[in-house]
Amino acid sequence: MSCTRMLAIINPGYEDNWGKIIDRIIEEGISILQMKKMTFDDEMIDKLFYYKIPQNSYPLFQAWMTSGPAVVMELDGKDVIYHFSDIVGPAHKDIALEQAPNSLNALYSNSTAEPVCLGSINLENAIEEITFIFGSVPEEIIPKLESAEFEEDELDELNTIENLANQYEGKDYSRYVLKQEYLESTVMPLVLEGLSWIMKERPKDPVEHLAMFLLKNNTFNKQKLADPIQPEEVKAPQPTSSKKRD
């Protein structure tokens, strides 16, 4: 399903280029429905980005995003999320210069750690973020088409989106962060690293070794151990011996 709405942010540090960035967005055929200047605080950044940014870099990201004024916009256009992503270009400035020299990041980015813009990644994100920033879910963001035009699974998706819109209205935004994004930004990086280590080491009891790897390298542990666990550090559990009854 194509998305026609999204939230976009011109990040702090680009005040001198606000006009050029906004003009470029409009020139690309994207409509700006709402726009305002604002300065984020820590709580607002937590609600928008806490589960979307890797935890090891989140403190620096939060400090940067609260360091000065930003511009937030509700954008409208066909496949606007993909279109806007193409306009912004790769986050890494060197890659942007090579692969997309006319992108916003290639033209204006201060560094790889400070992209020019951020934006919604899907329709559910757009509903959450527009509601949080501008205070209401626009009715037009929910497709209003006849049931006959959709397959059953598509109708289920539409109902889910509409229910999400109703849930977010007037409620605590942080409670409705997408589960997939939460897992991808917290659990999956370490799980994938552990699976890669298991494939390399091939321990006799891979499940127990994976569990120990996750526990020892848990980034949320206040006393994180830097070195990954080695195979010899984990001893396989010994079977419980049963004495022969007389």
UniProtKB/TrEMBL annotation:
Pfam families, per database record: Dpy-30, NDK
InterPro entries noted in UniProt: Dpy-30_motif, DPY30_SDC1_DD, NDK-like_dom, NDK-like_dom_sf
One cellular-component annotation, GO: nucleus
Stored SUPFAM superfamilies: Nucleoside diphosphate kinase, NDK
Keyword terms, alphabetized: ATP-binding, Kinase, Nucleotide-binding, Nucleus, Transferase
Keyword Nucleus: yes
Keyword field contains Flavoprotein: no
Entry's family note: Belongs to the NDK family.
Protein name: Nucleoside diphosphate kinase-like domain-containing protein
